[in-house]
Amino acid sequence: MAFDMLVALLLIVSFLFLGHWYRNRNSTVGNWPVVGMLPALASNADRMLDFFTDMLKSNGGTFKIQGPWFASSDFLLTAHPMNINHIFCKNHGNYEKGPELRQILETYEGIITSDSDMWKRQKKALLSFFKYNKKSAAYMDRILLQVLQGSLIPVLEHFQTLGTEVDLEDVLGLFNYDYMCLLGFGVNPKTLSAELPVVEITEALGHRDDALVHTKTVPPMIWKLQKWLQIGKEKKLRRGLEMVDDFAPHTHFIKTR
């Protein structure tokens, strides 16, 4: 009797996995019974944004992540311009965030988490800020030229003279930080130099983004427990948010490598 039950169980498991293989034989990532795509997410935990980018590229700009059966963690990724325009502009009213998503996105409070009339008012204010006019365009060009001539070009010429290999992501990250500080606050922290220092405020923002991905790719009970115990990514998030709250234009937040 026990042997018959074992054989039946093996047949059921084999049937499930054969069905899984047939349904996903052309998929770029495995969607397994019970656990869904959790193995792929776990194995790419240290490069989650790159993993999402790869999935979008190989699936026409839109991809559905399916989580474990026991957790409501399915979500849709899209980078297709028509989809984005449909969701954020043409039919924004059909895509209410709701309390659950607002809880996940609480560190991004503002236009990202707002709905209805509040969203319309914030969108209008944001568009007015970016609306083109000659004065604002001339100001932005002047600021850009100042950082280009004062920092970026000299630093690149320095590395070229020495024949030193350099990670352009680090260089352009510091360039963007200096430019945005000068544009938004009128203060140039001048972090872009040959030493390529680490800017802790940008690291804090990175922790915030990592925590957002983490809360959407693991069951809610896990990240909520981490938040309560202040461990893992939730601990990094709290420290990062404290640094962002304390941020002031005259503070550089630089540490040496």
From TrEMBL:
Keyword annotations of the record: Heme, Iron, Metal-binding, Monooxygenase, Oxidoreductase, Signal
Against Gene3D superfamilies, the record matches this protein to:
Cytochrome P450 (1.10.630.10)
The UniProt record lists the keyword Cytoplasm: no
Provide the leader sequence positions. Answer: 1-21
Q: What's the cofactor?
A: heme
Is DNA damage found in the keyword set? no
Which InterPro entries does the record match to this protein?
Answer: Cyt_P450, Cyt_P450_sf
Pfam families linked to this entry = p450
Q: Which GO terms describe its molecular function?
A: heme binding; iron ion binding; monooxygenase activity; oxidoreductase activity, acting on paired donors, with incorporation or reduction of molecular oxygen
PANTHER family linked to this entry: CYTOCHROME P450 (PTHR24296)
| Family under the similarity heading | Belongs to the cytochrome P450 family.
The name of this protein is: Cytochrome P450
